[in-house]
Design a protein that fits this description.
Length: 390
Amino acid sequence: MSNDLLLTNVRVMGGAATNMLIRAGKIAEIGAATAAPGVPTEDGGGALLIPGLVEAHTHLDKSLWGMGWRVHQAGPRLIDKIETERRLKKEWNIDPARQAGRQIAQSSQMGSTHIRSHVDVDDAVGLAGMEGVLAARETHADIIDVEIVAFPQSGLMCRPGVADLLVEAMRMGGDVVGGLDPCGIDRDPKGQLDMIFALAERTGKELDIHLHEAGTMGAFSTDLIIERTRALGMKGKVTISHAFCLGDPDAALIGPLLDAIAELDIAIMTTAPAGRPAPPVAKLRSMGVRVCSGSDGIRDTWGPYGSADMLERAMFIGMRNNFRHDAEVEMALDVCTYGGASVMGLKDYGVAVGCQADLVLVDAESLTHAVVSHPPRRLVIKRGKIVSRA
């Protein structure tokens, strides 16, 4: 399959109909008069063209996609979900390589061209998740780019031996060091944060820390993350995922944290949850904070929801943040495209000349229309190759 392609009659980011020439997997020319004899041509039919969607937070190793419907058993508490998952991984034969491949295929056809996946490293599965997702990443490298976070889902300090496994996971090919609720799960915030920051510093990698802790506890953990980010010179190299505490209405509690997050370029990932406090997207963006999003778990043991559709996720962000004006809804889409690209450090991302041709065509009148209707993807293009059609 060629990496050269001429797209005709497309509306780049909702603009006037034009043509786009792709050479060697990169956008070479944009213009109504653009032509390229001998190059494969695809009529866009007036479709809207946007950059590839960025799934900046998911768990490829444990989706149940394609395994048939399963009755969900997870209890209400975080620790209940963790313990149920540890048990069912073995009972249900949730093979990481197989399930990662299935979710990658689904994400690709929904228009995602990049994924950041957290992969469990714990004393129940050891490094099997890492091995499986690494294999799936290689197998599907032609349709999607996968970045792997080595993630101690069950806890780090409270599970003997997991710290050593996390080190090995990074040696195997982990791209980002993960962490999880240093108070609520590990009950040793200093121990966990010192360990993961030291590992990130030693390996030269970034950090992405799940922080479900709400209210004062979450604010305390966030302050410790801020303290270490500043002390170790890791500005721009830390992401806090979920960050429920930032949705607390107490401005006196949250205000200083937001100021420090902006100062230190700490990125925030939000799924726009329906039932939990959520970081204020418009406020964060107005302060210059990089914000990204993701599907989180997709039809896994934690819950039955998810379709890997990041246009739908942009709609959730808009609804959760009460975005109504078109410019606000477009901000939600930006979180799921350029926001994720910025957090993942993607080079040559976008829809300008010189950018890598990771593109999505949708039948929509405007960017806002694409978000609220999230229609089937007419075309998904990865490095100039059509990888999914309708």
